[in-house]
Amino acid sequence: MDRSKLFSAPSVSLYIALLTVVGLPAAILPRVGAQQGPSDLDLMKGGWFVRSYEEGGVSLSPEMTRDWTFRFDRDTVSTKYVDGTATKGRVKLDPATSPKGIDFLWDEGDQVKIVRGIYEFKGKELRICVSRPSKPRPREFSSKYRSDQSIVVLARDSRRERKEGR
């Protein structure tokens, strides 16, 4: 085989054209779906306190939510309620949807209760709107009177933020 013909002007030009059209943009442009910073699970990680809670259009007083906390760690979530009871479960995110989807899978003995919702980061807060178990995922952040939806607004659980926010 004559190797001099492999690098002739027409074949090199064709190779450069193919590299420009196919290979170079793929090397330069970010990959579709490539991670561009911390994931939403990373942003959720840690402790949060309930700044406000509304269920079916009715808001709970700050006294009722003062000691209610959430803790996210990777795909697990735990809550501690005002009365001291606690629940644990898993959380699944779908950040590709609009609004972003969140599913809570709460452990209840031998069964798992699935609560579907949506979420958004708004400033330093995390807003979550959920439907009652077995109800469809909310389409918007609302909790109208007698609806099956609840909105919880979470803020980072630190002493400084608790003093400033309460």
Fold and architecture overview:
The protein has 166 residues and is of the alpha+beta class. It has 2 domains: 34 residues, no CATH class; 126 residues, Lipocalin, CATH 2.40.128.280. The chain is 22% helix and 40% strand. The protein is built from 4 helices and 9 strands; from the N terminus they run H-H-E-E-H-E-E-E-E-E-E-E-H. The protein has an 8-stranded antiparallel beta barrel. Strand 7 and strand 8 form a beta hairpin. The N terminus is likely disordered.
Key attributes of the depicted protein:
disordered N terminus; 2 domains; 22% helix
* Sequence stretches where pLDDT stays below 50 over 5 or more residues: 3-31
* CATH architecture annotation name of the largest domain: Beta Barrel
* Content-based structural category: alpha+beta
**Major sheet strand order:** 1-3-4-5-6-7-8-9
Number of domains: 2
Write the SSE topology:
Blueprint: H1 9-28, H2 40-44, E1 46-55, E2 58-59, H3 62-65, E3 69-73, E4 76-80, E5 86-94, E6 100-108, E7 111-122, E8 125-131, E9 149-156, H4 159-165
Antiparallel strand pairs: 1-2, 1-3, 1-9, 3-4, 4-5, 5-6, 6-7, 7-8, 8-9
Quick rundown:
By secondary structure, this protein is an alpha+beta fold.
